[in-house]
Amino acid sequence: MTFASIVWDVDPVLVHLGSLEIRWYGLMWGLGFILAYEMVSRLFKKEGYPENWADKLFVYCIVSSVIGARLGHCLFYEWDYYGAHPAEILKIWKGGLASHGGVFALILALIWYSKTVTKKSVWWLFDRMIPAVAVVCMCIRFGNLMNSEIFGYPTTLPWGFEFVRSREWQELYNQNGVAQACHPTQIYEMLYCLVAGVTAWVMYHTYHLQKRVGLITGVSLLIFFGTRFALEFMKNPQVAEEADMTFNIGQWLSVPLILLGAYLIATSRTRKE
Predict the structure, then answer these.
(1) Is residue 75 classed exposed, middle or buried when 0-12, 13-18 and 19+ CB atoms within 10 A define those classes?
(2) What is the CA radius of gyration of the chain?
(3) Residue 153 lies in a domain
(4) Cα–chain center distance at 93
(5) Domain range holding 222?
(6) Cβ contacts of residue 36 below 8 Å, gap of 6+?
(7) CB 52 within 8 A of CB 163
(8) What per-residue confidence (pLDDT) applies to 2?
(9) Tens digits of per-residue pLDDT, 11-57?
(10) How many domains does the chain have?
(11) Which of 156, 169, 179, 194 has the most beta carbons within 10 angstroms of its beta carbon?
């Protein structure tokens, strides 16, 4: 055991009810969406928009993000398996979600939502949603932490975690009686989500920068995916193919979102609602 490391031995199942399991991961997904709904609903009400806007938005967000995250994982990370076993794509309860896929699907769904419901720019909508999106992302990464998954390479820093319930950690970093603590990259990602959410909140409520449509979203995308790109250098490969890649799949998928963020910032002065 590394001195001053944290032994993370948390059961991913919160409650056992007979054969039914309530897992932290699923609970945090649900909690994230409930909190996000409350945040956006109150904002719409404060600004005087129809009450059903938030209800419709809630449905669009859940359906698109879950389907997109699932397809993103299957297509980008494990297509060799899922292409040969397409029925397995539907078994979402077995795990396998990719945040990039969720973001891409969410953007497409909310473009349609904006055309049919708000009649405004999709970036007008995202400028108001970013703090809520950050809350959802924080909850999901907390779920990853409770699952002891998506952690980083070994570290000697005092906040390194020994993920003793993880088969991957046991096989890679607990050999010959020597346990290596690893970067808790789930917590790092929770922190940059917090920074993005707080930044968007301050830009909106303190400096009223929502008048420059797309600026808040652009800055947030740079925080989310610029930091995500950097953090990927300290994360273990999610699939074997990434071991020999200079930039992994998550980094390549972050690039278009970083570029989109820069574009939104550069054009925010001329964009209309």
Answers:
(1) middle
(2) 20
(3) yes
(4) 17
(5) 6-266
(6) 61, 129, 132, 133, 135, 136
(7) no
(8) 44
(9) 999 998 988 889 999 999 999 999 999 999 999 999 999 989 999 99
(10) 1
(11) 169
Strand-pairing partners, residue 21, are 16
* Cβ(114)–Cβ(120) below 8 Å: yes
**Angle, nearest 10°, between helix axes 122-146 and 185-205?**
150
Q: Is 273 a domain residue?
A: no
Query: What is the residue type of 192?
Result: Y
For 94-113, letters b (16+ CB in 10 Å) and e give eebbbbbbbbbbbbebbeeb
Is the predicted pLDDT of residue 3 greater than 60, yes or no? no
Dump pLDDT digits (tens) for 155-201.
999 999 999 999 999 999 999 889 999 999 999 999 999 999 999 99
**pLDDT tens-digit readout, 96-132:** 888 889 999 999 999 999 999 999 999 999 999 999 9
Residues 6+ apart with CB under 8 A from 80: none
pLDDT of 206: 96
Contact between 222 and 258 under an 8 Å Cβ cutoff? The reply is yes
Residue 1 lies in a domain: no
Which pLDDT score is estimated for 97? 86
Structure tokens at 88: 């397995």
How distant is the alpha carbon of residue 270 from its chain centre? 30
Give first-to-last CA distance, the chain, whole Å.
Answer: 56
Contact 110, 125 (CB under 8 A): yes
Q: pLDDT tens-digit profile of 207-228?
A: 999 999 999 999 999 999 999 9
